[in-house]
Write a structure and sequence with these properties.
The complex is a heterodimer. Chain A is of the alpha/beta class. Chain B folds into two domains: 88 residues, Elongation Factor Tu (Ef-tu), domain 3; 157 residues, Rossmann fold, CATH 3.40.50.80. Chain B is built from nine helices and 16 strands. In chain B, the strands form three sheets. Chain B has a seven-stranded antiparallel β-sheet with strand order 6-1-2-5-4-3-7, sandwiched between helices. The relative contact order of chain B is 0.13. The chains are: A alpha/beta, B alpha/beta.
């Protein structure tokens, strides 16, 4: 190995110019070239115990794939990556690496952590352009249904297919991918990337049934009996968008981030001549501080609006991925920290402003973050003709209402153990439907663990009757 | 690929009945539920109430009024052609429990929503009296179907060109005065449902309105279809589309339905211009 290279600085990700990109929906991050990827991989110190792998929800053997990449063995590196991660091109783009693998990287204590996500993305993109998909493994004749084609469902389906199961994925929308297609905008995750990952699963023998809503078009019971699946995985996702319950929230011009993003991402409403409309506002207030808030803000910016993110805590507590906040700022998005909406001002049923209260931080709450409280006499109006609420979601009741005996938590979320087992035999669950809003990779981790548990369950149950 | 149109019947100019073979929907559909249709790739997701279903034949009927670009694309489809997406049954079925004597009120193409309610009520053992209203005789649809299911049918037109002159509220008020009604089910334009609700309110008769807000996914994910009912926020796709008409904030619903009106007008014009070009 060219040891000297270990002293190189972390290679920054080339990006589209902020002034250009705030007018288009093309991908912001442009990706490493081969030489940069190799040099970045060379920065890995190859520590014993691989702390980075411990920081990864799907436990990718990071030092191993970086070592291969450092030698320029990119396809071999990809194969190692793909062993544990069903969607590397997606994860390389949307994982909060700075809180996971890269947070644990020893190199971070020396200068800056290895850009693991950037190398991951390079390997996955290179493979998509040139590599061949592995042959479909021999089938074991046993059938498993996966409900929901988001990150949890795709990871579970991929893992089961590799183990020889015949997997059918049921998706409620007209396109597979869940939050990857309706939620995350193309400038962060191009839809072709998701499409390729899904094609790869199809090549593994996974079958997708679109326009099929769990609990409406079919029940879990029917999957087990009439349709003869031996096990079912529920990866139905986060569910119903939350609102604040403040006055004016049903005015024209108030949207959930889910609605706003779905119109843009799934329905292509940003494109000229699109059949689905998206509200064209001049001044948009986005309420919330997570990745979804950043995505909504950046979409609104691209549609020509002046955008302010309103967050009730301080910048330090922002739950969004660091890179997204930096990119949002570069694109001219304003932030109003320590501000909490109390009322949406309206004029003849349309949004005319957002009345906010200034907040200050008190003691840490249950989540460990300092809880905000209102400063007396501090109210102000933020001019806005649209307000986007990005406040997370509450569990979707469609499937649980139609599934007798499925144990639910206090908020209506599906109860599942660490391996995804629910209260119903042969029924597993994972992802946001169990945990509430979380990250893509956490959902994938849950899907992957459930796949292993389904495999064990069916092996113990013995061969097909 | 897609969902083929087995039958197409023009009920009136701009109003067609389309029959689809779609077992995933027909086998579980119940009165009051809806589907979401996308006519073509790139098309809008349009919610439409299930007008009829046949479990044995595995078919679902939709009645489409060509009012905007998306419904025009749908209504123009011919037998043998397909729509690219059709998903359902969505929403909660209408609850007929405890109803022995019902009034069903339909306004305009809302009669396509009211008809399966009349049918569902009959199947649940209730008697039905129907009040159906239209702008004028050219828009009248489904009279025979309502007659077959109802003890009496009251037909109204705004201009008096067919049936009684005026809107549905007058015959509805008479039925309220006659009494002996357990519940009223209304489907149609929001202003009409609002006034129907005001007509029944003084009599304290349970009145259920089938709401038709803007939707995208139809499964609770987008929250676009929220309706204020008794001061609470409800999602029409998950908790509805039926709600207690005496508790619905109709004025807010009317305002919300207009959110994309300028866009819809432009899309409609564009669609009509395209058609003209094709004809030239």
């Amino acid at each position: 190995m060219e040891k000297g290279k270990q002293t190189a600085n972390r290679h920054t990700m080339p990006v589209q110019d902020p002034h250009e990109r705030q007018k288009n929906f093309r991908e912001v991050a442009l990706g490493y070239d081969g030489e940069t990827a190799r040099e970045e991989a060379l920065r890995c110190l190859g520590c014993k115990g691989a702390p980075c792998t411990k920081g990864c929800p799907v436990a990718v053997d990071i030092p191993a794939f970086l070592a291969e990449a450092a030698h320029g063995n990119f396809e071999k590196a990809y194969k190692i990556l793909r062993e544990d991660n069903a969607l590397p091109a997606v994860c390389g783009r949307v994982c909060p690496q700075e809180k996971q693998c890269e947070a644990q990287c020893t190199r971070g204590r020396v200068d800056a952590p290895v850009a693991i996500g950037n190398v991951e993305r390079f390997l996955a993109d290179l493979h998509a352009a040139s590599g061949e998909n592995p042959p479909s493994p021999p089938k074991n004749g046993r059938r498993v249904a996966v409900v929901g084609s988001g990150p949890a469902g795709l990871a579970c389906a991929g893992e089961l297919a590799r183990r020889g199961y015949e997997v059918t994925v049921y998706e409620a929308l007209h396109a597979a991918g869940g939050v990857l297609v309706y939620g995350i905008p193309a400038f962060r995750l191009p839809k072709e990337v998701v499409g390729r990952e899904i094609e790869e699963l199809e090549a593994l023998g996974v079958r997708f049934v679109l326009n099929a809503v769990g609990g409406k078009s079919f029940t879990v019971e029917e999957l087990r009996t009439d349709l003869g699946y031996e096990a079912v995985f529920l990866g139905t996702g986060a569910g119903l968008p939350r609102f604040m319950g403040i006055e004016g929230e049903n005015a024209v011009g108030v949207f959930s981030a889910n609605e706003y993003l779905t119109r843009i991402n799934l329905m292509g409403a940003y494109e000229e001549g699109a059949a689905t409309p998206v509200y064209r506002a001049k001044k948009v207030a986005v309420v919330g501080g997570g990745n979804v808030a950043m995505d909504a803000a950046r979409c609104a910016r691209r549609l020509g609006a002046e955008v302010t993110v309103v967050y009730r805590r301080s910048e330090e507590e922002l739950p969004a991925r660091r890179e997204e906040v930096v990119h949002a700022r570069e694109e001219g998005i304003l932030f109003r920290f320590l501000a909490n909406p109390v009322k949406i001002e309206t004029e003849s049923g349309h949004v005319s402003g957002l009345l906010c209260a200034e907040m200050e931080l008190g003691e840490p709450d249950a989540s460990g973050r300092r809880s905000p409280r209102e400063r007396a006499g501090s109210r102000f109006v933020l001019a806005a003709d649209a307000v986007i609420m990005a406040l997370g979601t509450s569990p979707n009741p469609l499937l649980s209402r139609a599934t007798e005996g499925l144990a639910l938590g206090p908020r209506g979320e599906i109860v599942a153990d660490g391996e995804g087992r629910t209260s119903l035999e042969g029924v597993f669950a994972g992802g946001d439907a169990v945990t509430g809003s979380a990250t893509v990779i956490q959902a994938m981790g849950a899907g992957k663990r459930a796949a292993a548990a389904i495999d064990r369950y069916l092996q113990n149950k013995g061969p097909v009757a | 690929m897609g969902y083929e149109i087995l039958q197409r019947e023009v009920l009136r100019e701009g109003i067609v009945r389309l029959r689809f073979s779609v077992p995933l929907i027909s086998r579980r559909a119940l009165a009051g539920q809806f589907v979401i249709v996308r006519a073509d790739q790139g098309g809008e997701r349009v919610p439409l109430t299930i007008a009829a279903y046949d479990r044995a034949a595995e078919t679902v009927d939709l009645i489409v009024q060509a009012v905007g670009a998306s419904t025009m694309s749908l209504a123009e489809k011919r037998v043998g052609q397909s729509v690219c997406d059709l998903v359902g049954p969505l929403g909660m079925p209408t609850c007929f429990a405890g109803v022995k004597r019902a009034v069903v009120v339909g306004g305009g193409v809302g009669c396509a929503i009211a008809l399966p309610l009349a049918q569902g009520l009959r199947e649940a053992g209730a008697t039905v009296q129907s009040v159906i209203g239209f702008r004028s005789r050219e828009q009248v649809i489904l009279t025979e179907e309502f007659s077959a299911l109802s003890e009496r049918v009251f037909l109204t037109t705004d201009d008096g060109s067919a049936g009684e002159k005026g809107n549905v509220c007058r015959p509805l008020a008479r039925l309220m005065k006659e009494g002996n009604i357990d519940a009223v089910f209304v489907a149609g334009p929001l202003p009409m449902m609002k006034y129907a609700a005001e007509t029944t309110r003084p009599y304290g008769i349970k009145t259920v309105a089938s709401m038709n807000p803007i939707m995208i996914d139809g499964t609770g994910m987008c929250g676009c279809c929220r309706v204020r009912v008794g001061g609470e926020m409800k999602f029409a796709c998950v908790d509805g589309p039926d709600f207690d008409a005496h508790l619905i904030d109709f004025d807010e619903a009317i305002s919300r339905l207009s959110a994309y009106r300028p866009f819809e007008q432009r899309a409609r014009e564009r669609h009509c211009n395209l058609l003209k070009k094709e004809e030239d």
